[in-house]
Each structure stands twice: as C-alpha cells, then as structure tokens.
Design goal:
Elements (H helix, E strand, L loop, with lengths): L4 H19 L1 E13 L13 E11 L4 E15 L6 H6 L2 E16 L3 H4 L1 E13 L3 E3 L5 E3 L22 E4 L2 E8 L4 E11 L15 H8 L1 H7 L3 H4 L22 E12 L6 H8 L6
Antiparallel strand pairs: 1-2, 1-11, 2-3, 3-4, 4-5, 5-8, 5-9, 6-7, 9-10, 10-11
Helix pairs in contact: 1-7, 4-5
Pfam families: DUF6089
InterPro entries: DUF6089, OMP/PagP_B-barrel
Protein name: Outer membrane beta-barrel protein
C-alpha cells in the first residue's frame, strides 16, 4: 500500500480515539505507612507500631467525578502487648509481625472537577484481597511462623470447631484524600485509608487458650511457648501460671483492621491536560 498524504490524514483521525482513551488512564505509585488494629492494641490505632507501605496503582477516569483504581500494596502489620497499659495484656505478653500484600479495586468520588479547580478532595471505597502470615520472635530472637503452631488449638481433634485459618482474606478499603495537578501529566495526592477485614487472625489471636498438655503433645514445646509468654515477663517459669483451658486469650467480637495512609503520584498516559482537551479531541469543531 502506497503511503500518501491522504492516508496519513486518515490514520491520524483513526488514532484520535485511542489517544483520547489513553488520556483517561494514569499509572503511579504509593508511598506511606501501615497501621494495625486488633487484639494486641487497646486503642483503635497504636502509632507506636507504624511501619512503611509501598504500592503501584492504575487509575481510569470514568468521568469528571468518578475514578476507578486498581492497586497492589505492600505493608507491615505489627503489634505487641508490651506497650499496653492493661496489667492482663502485659502479662499475656504476645506480639506479632506480618507482611501484608493487598490487591484492591477501588472507586474514587471526586468532589470537584479536577481540571477546573486544580485540586479536589475525594472519598473512596472498594474491595481488596490480602495475604498475610503472622510471625513472632522467640526468646532466642528467631522469628517463628505462628499459624503452623496452632496456638489456639486450630486443627486439634479436641477442638473440632477450630480449624487452621486461611492466610488470604478479604478487606474493605475505604477512606478519604485530596489530589492536586502538578502539571499536564503529573498528579500528587494524599489519603488516609482503613481496611476492616474478614479475618480475626491477622495477629494470630482470636479466642481462648487451650489445654497446655494437649498443645504440647500435638504441637510441641514451641507452640506452648508462643501461645502464652507471661513467663518471659518475670524471667522465670512459674508452675501453674499457664492459663487454664478456655481462659480468654483474645476476642472474636471484632475482626482485625489495618490501614494504609500516604502519598500517591500518578502520570497521565498519552499526555495532554485531561478532560478539557479530551472534550475538544472527542468533539472537534471544524472551521473553514
């Protein structure tokens, strides 16, 4: 096929919809912090256990006020009884740390037209799935995976209703933020996002203690050591101090939460300056 001026003009007009389509898409990154709320915190969020978070994201502008976002975010959830003020929690002396790997699909509702105001507050809500694997350091400083130990009798025949918990769970991201245009391509934002989850085992703590001898027989001394760590507070083993079978270890009344808060930076694919230019591109006015 011979390339002519007419062919070039035809190809240019054919490419216009794809160029406009690209302008609706943004790719970017997230840099922020992770916080945890669960059985090892007395307050909703304990800032002493703030840890880093990183992520990648893709945004699609549906219209001026609605944006859909897909993201993959990594963070660290952690907590410990040692910083609580409750005497009972200090005596329990549990702790945990877990990487959190979240994939999410989120809808953002913008309050203003971003291209006109240059900035806009927004709220968001969506659905997420995340992987986790709680660990804790033993007295030798070695990090130990807690799920295989069955610290609350999960998987033992004496406790048939307690099954090993999944290491993948659902979260419900929601929150609010603000974003501002830096130039035609770049947008900077800041948001605070909460994640109520459908698991109570992000921290490996949920219900009651199980019989010490049963746990020892089926899972070994390490499971007993990590299920209750009160002896480490006094530095000596106290006979009979281990909680009785059925004693309260945690509470399954509320599921665990985590939070991702921080900055987003996104780049608009295809260049241009957003909806203003897209409108002109999609509905051109031909003048003689």
């Amino acid at each position: 096929m011979k390339f002519t001026k007419s062919t070039g003009i035809l190809l240019l007009f054919m490419a216009v919809p794809f160029f406009s389509f690209a302008q609706d898409w943004h790719v970017g990154a997230f840099l922020g912090i992770t916080n945890y709320s669960g059985d090892l915190t007395q307050q909703r969020v304990d800032m002493k256990y703030t840890r880093p978070a990183l992520g990648l994201l893709v945004r699609k502008d549906i219209n001026r006020y609605l944006t859909i976002r897909g993201a993959f975010t990594w963070g660290i959830a952690t907590g410990a009884d040692s910083t609580n003020s409750s005497k009972d929690l200090l005596q329990r002396n549990l702790s945990f740390r877990s990487n959190v790997f979240e994939g999410s699909l989120i809808g953002e509702v913008n309050f203003f037209e971003l291209e006109e105001k240059g900035f806009t507050p927004y709220v968001f809500v969506g659905i997420g799935g995340f992987g986790f694997d709680p660990t804790a350091k033993d007295q030798s400083g070695n990090r130990v995976r807690l799920r295989p130990l069955g610290t609350e009798g999960q998987g033992l025949p004496q406790y048939p209703t307690r099954q090993p918990y999944d290491l993948f769970a659902i979260s419900i991201p929601f929150g609010a933020g603000v974003k501002a245009i830096l130039n035609d391509q770049w947008t900077l934002g800041f948001e605070i996002g909460f994640r109520p989850t459908l698991t109570d085992y992000l921290d490996d703590v949920s219900t009651n203690y199980v019989d010490q001898n049963t746990l020892l027989a089926y899972r070994g001394q390490k499971a007993v050591d990590m299920a209750w760590r009160g002896d480490e507070v006094s530095g000596k083993v106290t006979p009979g101090a281990y909680p009785a079978d059925g004693a309260i270890r945690g509470s399954d009344k509320h599921k665990d939460w985590y939070a991702f808060s921080g900055f987003t930076i996104t780049y608009r694919l295809g260049g241009g300056s957003g909806w203003g230019k897209q409108k002109a591109t999609r509905c051109p006015i031909l003048r003689p």
